[in-house]
Amino acid sequence: MGKHKKHSGSREVANLAHETSSSGLNKEEDSPPQEPPTAVSCSGSSSEGRISAAYDTLVMVNVNPSFSYHVLHSLLKAYGTVVRIRLVYDKDFPSNRCCVTFMSCDEARLAYEHVAYLPLAGHGFKTEFLQSHNISDSDMDYIPNVFENSLENSVPEVRQIPSPRWFVAYYRNGHGNFIHASRYLAKVIGNIPEGNIKKYGKGVLMRAKDITQARMLQHLPCPPDNMIETVKAHPTFNYS
Predict the structure, then answer these.
(1) What integer pLDDT is reported at residue 119 of this predicted model?
(2) Where is this region: Disordered (predicted)?
């Protein structure tokens, strides 16, 4: 089994906690500065020579940017129950960090030992452990139980489209169901605030709520049997 880079990712874990604090990763914003969470190696040993049950979150640096939340969950659920996924992109695409919280430490460790062999690894891919109590809930989180049963469509390979903030998802044959389309979009790109998605002629108008969602809309899947035929940048909203 190939070895992961055990300690070089520690800096990325510290950066993750710092850079995404505004998105709710730090639970107590007014608390005094603390030391970065201790990174845990593939062998399961921390700086104290043992792994705590609290290390139930797998942090992956530089995940393949082509993957949606649904695809990430489909790949990782084989190793245990995925409680939530958070994908955060840096301002300079395509660098990203992905936090995956499992039901238990053993499940997180099992995923840790196998992710290097999955197609989700991008350039410069690294992995570490993190304690879930260092990550607060956020509307950016993908909660599998919320989205997995809403639609049964499979997700094919994704394709490249432009990356502005405003998009129009056009219905196949010019007509479709707004509620079903909204559920499908939420399943693929995560929670969509109520004001960010509207009926729009022969499709659905969407505004990406953050830089991560904008990136995911670049690669929005459009299965041939889905009511959504194509997704395009809005011709004027992105330049007004």
Answers:
(1) 82
(2) 1-47
